Amino acid sequence: MARPVTENTRAATDWRAVAADLRGQNQRLATENAALLKRALHAEQAAARAEKQAAASRAELRKAQQLVRLHGGTAVGQHE
Description:
Elements: H1 5-65, E1 68-69, E2 75-76
């Protein structure tokens, strides 16, 4: 039994609407993924900068805690 032409047209239109909706969802997900990737990359860069700064601060602290020789030969330190 053949379907009437209007029913075939309606079915094709429904599938086209579904396909268009799926393309829109795909585009939104791709955009969201790109934004999340950008945030992740920025976070990794910030973490690398923070680690570098922390290492520099630790080195500066170690240097500040080193013993200092005075003219009399006595060593003076800031920590015991």
